[in-house]
Amino acid sequence: MSRRAFALAALSTLTTASGAAAAPGRPRRRGATGMRGVWLATVSNRDWPSKPGLTAAQQRAELIAHLDRVAADRLNAVMFQVRPTADALWPSPYEPWSQYLTGTQGKNPGWDPLGTAVAEAHRRGLQLHAWFNPYRIANHADPTRLVASHPARIHPDWVVPYGGKLYYNPGLPEVRAFVQDAILDAVHKYPVDAVHFDDYFYPYPVAGQTFDDDAAYDAYGGDFPNRADWRRDNIDKLVLETAARIKRVRPTAQFGISPFGVWRNAATDPLGSDTRAGVQSYDDNFADTRKWVREGWIDYLVPQLYWNIGFAAADYAELVPWWAEQARGSRTELYLGEALYKAGDPAQPAAWQDPAELSRHLTFAREYAQVRGHVFFAAKELASDRIGAMARVVADHYREPAGPPRRVTGRSAGSGA
């Protein structure tokens, strides 16, 4: 039986109206200690603040409203984007205040969003995972639009324009050190529960354009057979060094990464998943996400499985067991990234018009002991819940209050939660 056929068969065995029960013979896992997270994105004012230039009181009120909704839905963690574009949502000595707060990069908003978010999340029993984008500088290609004191203007040799945007060059050791310094400033100042990276390492491919890192490759790539291996090593170094530095500064803080959901297609690599995705993180972002899990380099991984059950190119029901197998016996916890934003979007396939699609994801994932929870994208849709998809998830799976996500370290292969 194929994995997809198994998925559908497993779903058909459910006996409760809510869809929350496990298949017969399966012990029911205590979901209240697993990850129930949501991303709160600030880039381009996606989730918060609703627009730049609000007063400090208005911004704070909107942030509190998001945290209240997270708590009301019995979730237990917020991935709060605090460095969206080489800027900061806290008073940083390394980078300017984010333009998404005041509308002007470098302008003090008159309060401390990260400090407030940590305190208010903890007051509600929520974990606060500080979410950093490592290399994105700007969603435009004009360095003169950056504040004059911006590190990218002081060090123009660090910058690569690509696809109409600006990026720091991951191949430069001084860039890697600077990015870590900027991140560790927040870790040092605030009792964050985790440092969180998203899927942007080397940028996603843009047709007809080349990411110009020739000079860096000439200077540092001599020990590698090709540029791709060198680029992957650059990202590996970022991951390993960041992990080590976090533990030195704040031993209780975790380090988690949320990559694109497909490592490699099986047609590219027999170790890959039975998918036909147009992007592969190993080849396109130069992120060897499978290795990070199997080697236990990070505390948790949240592959973005933003596809419905049965989607031909990247079937959720194919990817869950594949990722579960990679996590078997690893110290790295596996959580799954869920596309709440697709639910009820008329531009999405028919499956996403069904309010029960996301709930079915959680039901299916319960069959895999390595899956320790889910993270939903994103807070704006949590608040609006366009077709009641999140309400269905809460009713079916989150009826009990959530304790903090609890790591299960040192578990043997397949031992479960």
Automatic annotation (TrEMBL):
Keyword list, A-Z: Signal
Ranges where the Glycosyl hydrolase-like domain occurs: 35-348
Signal peptide from the UniProt entry: 1-22
Top-level taxon: Bacteria
Annotated InterPro entries: Divisome_Glycosyl_Hydrolase, GH, GHL10
Gene3D superfamilies: Glycosidases
PANTHER family membership: GLYCOSYL HYDROLASE DIGH (PTHR43405)
Record-given protein name: Secreted protein
